[in-house]
């Protein structure tokens, strides 16, 4: 098994961090936001990689919009937590009108993935294997019901919209909960290895150690 590598493509819509995670020649795409399909395809083909799945940290449109195009291009399934799978049928149905307008996307242009394979996290976690790529999925609800962190080996964690550099995800949209997010921050995020690098759903990368020390939301969750 080769070493896990991560390549980042930033989506033009909302700056979503789309990650191509590879080991050997196998890879998965995490958070295929709007406008990344062509760039991700060029990256994958240029590196001689074989995609095995498209994953999402959660089901919001800015993290899943190009998933259908990539799934069709490579004949691969979409994988996300079972609690968020319903969102793929209507990417705008759980967003506020203001946020829908801010995305600047059109319903008629949306292509849902043809094959969706939701996963469960009994006991709060699951190990997902795609050829030589292994990710450890940690259920982290609060931003959405099915928000998930993906830990890669003991080096990197993809946190989606649960944890950002200096902040955390909003909880006021459909399926969000401030109370549940507080528990996730306490029981899931604060339990992460401080040595892990963090790639959030938007914005700059950081580390768990830095966020534990400086992020006011994590400091508030210490009690």
Automatic annotation (TrEMBL):
<dbReference type="Pfam" id="PF00753">
    <property type="entry name" value="Lactamase_B"/>
</dbReference>
<dbReference type="GO" id="GO:0046872">
    <property type="term" value="F:metal ion binding"/>
</dbReference>
<keyword id="KW-0862">Zinc</keyword>
<keyword id="KW-0479">Metal-binding</keyword>
<protein>
    <submittedName>
        <fullName>MBL fold hydrolase</fullName>
    </submittedName>
</protein>
<dbReference type="GO" id="GO:0016787">
    <property type="term" value="F:hydrolase activity"/>
</dbReference>
<feature type="domain" description="Metallo-beta-lactamase">
    <location>
        <begin position="15"/>
        <end position="202"/>
    </location>
</feature>
<dbReference type="InterPro" id="IPR001279">
    <property type="entry name" value="Metallo-B-lactamas"/>
</dbReference>
<dbReference type="InterPro" id="IPR036866">
    <property type="entry name" value="RibonucZ/Hydroxyglut_hydro"/>
</dbReference>
<keyword id="KW-0378">Hydrolase</keyword>
<dbReference type="InterPro" id="IPR051453">
    <property type="entry name" value="MBL_Glyoxalase_II"/>
</dbReference>
